[in-house]
Amino acid sequence: MSISWDEALDRVRQIVAVCVEGDAERLRLEEEAFSVEVRRTTRRAASLAAPTEFSSGAGAGVCASSAAASNGAAHALAEPVLLRADFVGIVRFSRPVVAEGSLVNEDRELAYVESLGTRNPVRAAGRGKIVAVHVIDGQPVDYGHPLFAVVYE
Amino acid sequence: MKKILIANRGEIAVRVNRAAHELGIATVAIFSEADRNALHVRYADEAYCVGPAPAARSYLNIPNIISAAAVSGADAVHPGYGFLAENARFAEICADHGLTFIGPSPEVISRMGDKAAAKRVMQDARVAVTPGTDILESAEEARKAARKLGYPVLFKAAAGGGGKGMREVRTPEDLDHAYATAQAEAEANFKDGRLYLEKLLDRPRHIEVQILGDAFGNVVHVGERDCSVQKPSHQKLIEEAPAPVLSERTRSRLHDMAVAAARTVKYTNAGTLEFLVSGDDVCFMEMNTRIQVEHPVTEMLYGVDLAVEQIRIASGQKLSFKQKDLSPKGHVIECRINAEDAEAGFAPAAGTLGEAVLPAGPGVRVDSHVYAGCVVPPFYDSLLAKIVAHGKTRAEALARMDVALRETIITGVRTTTDICRTIIADERFAAGGVGIEFLPSLLHERVAGIR
User: Which of B15, B290, B336, B414 is catalytic?
Assistant: First the structure.
């Protein structure tokens, strides 16, 4: 018997919470029909251009960004979080155009992904600084394509 | 037609990619985050991730799929089978965005896709149908209808396919439970919980007829396929053609009914009419308005390329052959190698393949998307490969299949290779003409034997 996707998501959330609370590097949960492994990779700002990759299926590594988001404050150098495209479309930069070093907050629309005539805004989750721009204006992007890397305050 | 977006994954995406490239047409793959390294992505000219692993958010994500077509400049969409292949709304949306949908018109898909409506169409075309009901409103109504039809009966999902939302009911006591579970399964799989009932025939065989129609009103049948070897879930495991032990009268009756039905609905592109056959009794079951998993059986028997014909028809060309040009040569059998544990009720297995050695040799064709070290995600259907063997006679095809299955080495997940070998070695199967109860009872005997 396989478990439903919702159940699987719940398990992943639980294990991420345990991982973050216990400051664990790696945690593996194995059940009869399900196994998941969460690994946190500590990265320095220099390596932020590398997109965090999901490996597929059960046993997926949960990417660094989620752990970093909740854990960032504890570190002297906060880890960048990638903002990714949720839609397939063309990325359009909003004005004024952000660049590396731009300060942003949750209200500012950094760009939008134009998908079949709809405008899907891209915003940071809070106050922070853009440390990398991974796309150019007018570029086609697919689901999950890295757009910006943000270091939150 | 210059660029086709293939709205699917797995072996059928590879198959369509092959047909498109053969015709000099560029391809666009779509994939979920679980399929980033899949073969269909590597073979296509371009590829777009359309969502996370669950199919509902990726391979069924219509906005992202259409947007990928727009962004890539594709002018046509091939839906493969499963996912959006029989979704009339999707076909309509494709048309609205100026994309040629490689399949029949949305009107025909929705008429034939609603099984109860399809049955009415068939009755109009004087095609023999299985006695049954319209859409049921309640379990109580189902109970009354079942009494009238006479047990055993079968619940089926109006929007169904692939054995989902189907429940056999042998006694009135089992009816409520079967109604509830079939409805829940239909709702979960098709977002449409509507059910109807059909009379269950005595040990019927599943025989289907392949048809092709073009926009000029030409319709041909490309023979039948016997798909009676089905898992207890009603999913096909082994298919062959021509159907063995079938009277020529019944065979041509099936062909004629299929062509008549296709003409009645002005069918275009590839489609299949499924029948239940018991002796010389024939009942229409459903029509599939898409290419089928088992289409290579027909391709090898008749020496045609159905995927290429699909593309040609959709681009407004005439069928490249007439009925008189089509004649079956020899015998063909196909085994589905699934990532499933036949010892555990065909429970799907996911994981990473160790070895993946697929067979070859005279008369052997393999349609597959797997390779050594590839990941088999748990989110999609479990088909790994289709092994197809052609022979001058059925005996030669079976002998070649046995060799091919012995050459198949897939490690890392459990597969249906061994159960397929067991089946083709079984004397009842070797004699030909088994009914759909054959595999379930074979499995039952094996369990009893082990005990």
Answer: B290
